[in-house]
Specification:
Elements (H helix, E strand, L loop, with lengths): L1 H16 L20 H14 L2 E12 L4 E12 L3 E8 L4 E5 L2 E6 L4 E6 L7 H7 L5 H4 E8 L3 E8 L6 E9 L5 E8 L4 E11 L17 E4 L3
Parallel strand pairs: 6-12
Antiparallel strand pairs: 1-2, 1-11, 2-3, 3-4, 4-5, 5-6, 7-8, 8-9, 9-10, 10-11
Length: about 230
Amino acid sequence: MRENSKLNNTAAISACLLLIAIALAGARPGAAADAQSADAIVDSVQKTYDATIDFVADFRQETEVKTLNRNLKASGKLSFKRPGKMLWRYDEPKGQFVLADGKYLYFYQPEQNQIIKSPLQNAFRSDIPLSFLLGIGNLKKDFNAALKGSDENQFILRLEPKGEAGGFGEILAGVSKSSYDILSISVRDAAANLTTIRFSGMRKGAGVKDSVFTLQIPSGADIVELGQ
């Protein structure tokens, strides 16, 4: 049961990783600012994504787990560097982390003092999220985008994966109208669980060092390798 729980948590977080492409702090205000269409917004986001090497940000995460009738909350700091490197380091639950070093994905839960290690390509159900993780994805090629709504501060984009859905029921992105930064990401999976991540304090071009993505094994932790 514990093993299944850990793997489910890993899958939920991994599902959000595909949205790193969008979460690279949006587009330069300009071309898309007046054209309030999904295509215009996506074009601007893609342009900035292609030019972004790294970023750091704070995040807050909330997951509505339908089967347990529970809301799980988490927060921490995110570091990203192309291609295929990212670190989600949690302040709450304290000590938890998800690390991708370009080759492997590592998931650590302190209460188990165990690291689950899996080849990066095995951590996803389709090639779509992997392509974004590796920095080679294209929003228009891989997703159908629609402008679902807007309010005073943001556009709401609905993204539907083309072809293999990879277990995602719905993906929503909140895009700032003033800066085109991504304010929030929501992912609904096939089981109707909803994970929402909100970003703040994002800094692009932060000069994130490769050493940030080197695995540091906590004292006494076991490593369980999956999918070798």
